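As the next step, I selected for study one protein, both as residues and as discrete backbone shape codes, as given directly below:
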Amino acid sequence: MEQQTREDYIELDLMRLLKAVWRHMIVIVLAALLFGAAGFSAAYWLVPAKYQATALMYVNNGSIAMGGTSISLSDLSASQTLVDTYIAILKTRLTLDDVIKEAGVRYTFEQLEKMISAGSVNGTEIFRITVTSADPEEATRIANTITVVLPDKISQILDGSSARTVDLAVTPRTKSGPSYQKYALAGALAGLLLSAGIVVIRELLDEQIHNEEQLLQSYGLPVLASVPDLLTSKSGKGYGSYYAAAEGKNQS
């Protein structure tokens, strides 16, 4: 019986919190819209635009590079496994230092490494090199410089392996970031959670008894009698005002 009473008490508390959130739903929605607009404005005015330039390179292993007359499935598989090795060579300090020198940019090794991403194209022996920068022309220059520097580095480290340029990067015309929708959605979600959290906390901290049901739920005390509100009536006139009017007639 005690376990059942405790479960009913938790259920009633949850319903109370849900009702409190529902009562303040307009305020919660307005807070979500306000924070969403703030997130969009922050992305539009404060976050700098980013552009991406992409170049494609082809990986071939030793037997392919030696000019074999046929290419077997094992040769292609070996070329695909070399993609990760080539990307690791690309991200080394020696390679990126040469890229910085040849491209004529003023970045440290760590900064340039964060600007570059690479990966295989659909599991093939072709891999993509993408450079992200606030300057579209700079992103293009760095990506194309990598296609010149990387093959020499690969040939120096891996005997018989090489990389060839499949497609050079072109100057991007559209921004790749920031995503205004994501910033607006994140702001709206933050406003929703914050406003709903405030409503729930205020409801939990409210220790006043507002109705008979809450008194019975919280303390288990039955209501023996209730005091009517003498200052209010259904007709809109309070008993207090009626008494004052009657007293005025008696004096006249």
User: Anything to note?
Assistant: DSSP finds ten helices and four strands in the chain.
